[in-house]
Known about the structure:
single chain, alpha/beta, Dihydrofolate Reductase, subunit A, ten-stranded mixed beta sheet, three-stranded antiparallel beta sheet, 7 helices, 23% helix, globular, RibDG_C, NADP, oxidoreductase, Riboflavin_Biosynth_HTPR
Amino acid sequence: xxxxxxxxxxxxxxxxxxxxxxxxxxxxxxxxxxxxxxxxxxxxxxxxxxxxxxxxxxxxxxxxxxxxxxxxxxxxxxxxxxxxxxxxxxxxxxxxxxxxxxxxxxxxxxxxxxxxxxxxxxxxxxxxxxxxxxxxxxxxxxxxxxxxxxxxxxxxxxxxxxxxxxxxxxxxxxxxxxxxxxxxxxxxxxxxxxxxxxxxxxxxxxxxxxxxxxxxxxxxxxxxxxxxxxxxxxxxxxxxxxxxxxxxxxxxxxxxxxxxxxxxxxxxxxxxxxxxxxxxxxxxxxxx
Length: 288
């Protein structure tokens, strides 16, 4: 019997998306390979350690959302050993290695939407598509209250996937948003001169109204931290690269605490991706 490798494991994961209480066959055969029962799973086929790790990391993202108004939110940060996501000038390409980038693309493939803040979108000019793994592209979402992201950037010009451009304005869920090509602009972030941060709950509500429920908060650090601070992350993947920058932008921006008893202590598993070490942190906010 051939050993199940990472490529085959990824095919099983894609087949498991939004399914539960099912036995999945080895792709191209009728031979059982993976049993899923609620949140638990069992491999019934010989597999490499890397394949098992892949299934362990991604099956939690595949489970269906049962509550009509529910969602599932995963955040991601790629950082150096000393907790930096960019230099003082904003340079962040590429802190994480090839394996970390492939992992990032796999998360995108399992989510309905991938969200970035305006700073990340303007500085990195990302595509936010799935190119290093099989799977569908998510809807791309940029939080851009001040219209900072140049209209020449990939998100607005490449037509590779739908893009939601969230801008300043009062939100009206009954109003059909304006679209040009694959780009839909939704006023929903309040007054442009409002100094208070946009509530993450509002972002999730807008996405829910668009039928988007599995949400990937990809960056940057301020955006991910705002969802973490609000208690809205179910899981957080932190990829740590073997690099010491020494100064620069921190990964997390959270309120100060006085006692370690007040620190966040999520359930964690540590996986060696090859180029990076991954901390898979489970907050399990409201899975169903």
